[in-house]
Design brief:
2 domains; mainly alpha; MetI-like fold; about 80% helix
C-alpha cells in the first residue's frame, strides 16, 4: 500500500470518527428534547413526551424571542455592512502609515473576551439610557461581529482587485452605478460570508445580551442557557434545536445564493 493511499484511509477514518462524534451529540440533544425523564444510568429515556416542544412552540413568548433574535441579528448585519464595505475598501486599496496597527486594533474584539469590553460599555450605556433596549444590544453585538465582516469583505476586495472598477470609470460609469452594478456583485462572496458569521455570533451572544439587555431583551441564547443550566434540560434542548435549525437554515440560504453567484460567472 502506497503512502498516499494509506494517508487517504487515515483521513477518511478521522473524518468518519468526527462525523460520528457530532451525530452522537446531536442525537443526544434530539432525544433529550422528547424525554420526560432521563437520568443516570439509564441508556435511553424512561418516557418520551412532546411536552417540551408544546411548552416552547405554543408559547407566545418563544415566538417573540425568535423574532427578536432575528431582528437584532439582521440589524447588526446591515450596520456591519454599512461600516465594513468602506473600511475594507480603504484597507485593501491603500498603503498608509500605521496600517498594520489599525488592522491589529480591528482584530482586538476577536481576541478579547466580550465580557471584558462589555463591563466598561455597560457603565457608559447606563448613563446614556441605552441599557434594556434593542439599540443597546445591537450596538454591543456589533463589537464582536464587525471584525469578521471587515475581514471577509477585505478578502473579496483583494481577490478581485480594482481593475474592474477603473475600467467602469473609464467607460463613463458613475461611482454610484459602479458600486451598485459592479462592486456589490464582486463583493457578494465576502458579504455572504461576513453576514453568516455575524448572524451566528449575534445569536450566540449570551453574556453581552444579559448585561446590556438587563433581562428585558430576551433572545434565543438568553432563554436557552438558563434551562440547560437548570433542571429543565428538555426545554433547553428544544431551544438548542431551534437555535441550530435557524443557524443552519441561514447558512443554507447563504450557500444557495453563493452557488448561484459562482454559476453566473
Amino acid at each position: 500500500m502506497t503512502k498516499s493511499k494509506y494517508g487517504d484511509k487515515i483521513g477518511l477514518l478521522i473524518l468518519f470518527l468526527l462525523i460520528l462524534f457530532l451525530l452522537v451529540q446531536v442525537g443526544f440533544v434530539f432525544i433529550m428534547s422528547f424525554s420526560s425523564g432521563w437520568t443516570w444510568p439509564s441508556i435511553i429515556p424512561k418516557e418520551l413526551s412532546v411536552k417540551g416542544w408544546k411548552d416552547v412552540l405554543l408559547n407566545r413568548n418563544s415566538l417573540d424571542v425568535i423574532f427578536v433574535s432575528l431582528k437584532i441579528a439582521l440589524i447588526v448585519s446591515i450596520i456591519n455592512l454599512i461600516v465594513a464595505i468602506p473600511a475594507a475598501d480603504a484597507i485593501a486599496r491603500y498603503d498608509f502609515k500605521y496600517k498594520k496597527t489599525i488592522e491589529f486594533f480591528l482584530l482586538i474584539p476577536i481576541v478579547i473576551p466580550p465580557i471584558i469590553s462589555t463591563m466598561g460599555i455597560h457603565k457608559t450605556f447606563i448613563r446614556i439610557n441605552l441599557t434594556e433596549s434593542i439599540l443597546g444590544v445591537v450596538l454591543v453585538h456589533i463589537i464582536p461581529t464587525l471584525p469578521y465582516m471587515i475581514r471577509a469583505i477585505r478578502i473579496s476586495f483583494e481577490n478581485f482587485g480594482f481593475e474592474w472598477e477603473q475600467q467602469c470609470q473609464m467607460l463613463g460609469s458613475s461611482k454610484l452605478d459602479t458600486f451598485i452594478n459592479v462592486k456589490i456583485f464582486f463583493l457578494l462572496p465576502g458579504i455572504i460570508a461576513g453576514s453568516s458569521l455575524t448572524i451566528l455570533i449575534s445569536f450566540s451572544q449570551y453574556i453581552t445580551t444579559i448585561l446590556i439587555g438587563g433581562g428585558q431583551i430576551q433572545t434565543l441564547s438568553t432563554n436557552m442557557v438558563p434551562y440547560i443550566s437548570s433542571g429543565e434540560k428538555t426545554i433547553g434542548c428544544v431551544y438548542a434545536i431551534i437555535f441550530a435549525f435557524i443557524c443552519l437554515s441561514t447558512f443554507g440560504i447563504m450557500e444557495y445564493y453563493l452557488r448561484r453567484y459562482y454559476d453566473s460567472l
